[in-house]
Amino acid sequence: MKLVCGVSCLLIMLLTMITEPFADQAVDAAVAGDAKRGAALFSGSLPFVKGAAPCGACHALANRGVNGGKMAADLSGLFSPDSADAIKDSIGAIEAPVMKKMYADKPLSNQEYADLAAFARQPGPEQQPAPGRSLPLAGMGAAGLFLIGFALYKRRIS
């Protein structure tokens, strides 16, 4: 009887050791994030499953060129490759009364958190100058050309 019990325990341990890595892979595959879905969730083009408001309704994301709402802070610090894993904790620790009420009965799923984190891990586009920054330089260049032209024209008259 002891031999049968020992063999069965050994078999159970071996089966656990063999199947355990596959179980972890199945869990990881279930919550593997998709960056495109995360971007769509942030912007609101893909709704959250339980109907929560999209992040972009209130927040901008300047490091990605996403001009979201102006009601709340820019989330560029949260949506970066270095802080992607903090997204779930940040949403869970919401202090703003409006957001607490909004997300209390509409929590995000693990898949949605994974998608948002995958979106955050994506490198942002290269920073481009804001529109209108080159206008003063163009004005100074035009004024300089005007002064050079005026000086040459005045010399021609004399």
How would you describe this protein?
The chain has helices at residues 2-30, 35-43, 87-92, 97-104, 110-121, 135-157. With 158 residues, it is mainly α.
Core attributes:
6 helices, mainly alpha
Mean pLDDT: 75
What is the helix content? Answer: 55-70%
Q: Which class best fits the helix and strand makeup? A: mainly alpha
Indicate the radius of gyration in whole angstroms. 29 Å
The main pleated sheet reads as: none
Order of helices and strands: HHHHHH
Distance between the termini: 123 Å
Shape: elongated
Number of helices: 6
Strand content: under 5%
Q: What is the count of β-strands?
A: 0
Q: Which spans have pLDDT < 50 for at least 5 consecutive residues? A: 19-30
Itemize the secondary structure elements and their pairings:
Layout: H1 2-30, H2 35-43, H3 87-92, H4 97-104, H5 110-121, H6 135-157
Helix pairs in contact: 2-5
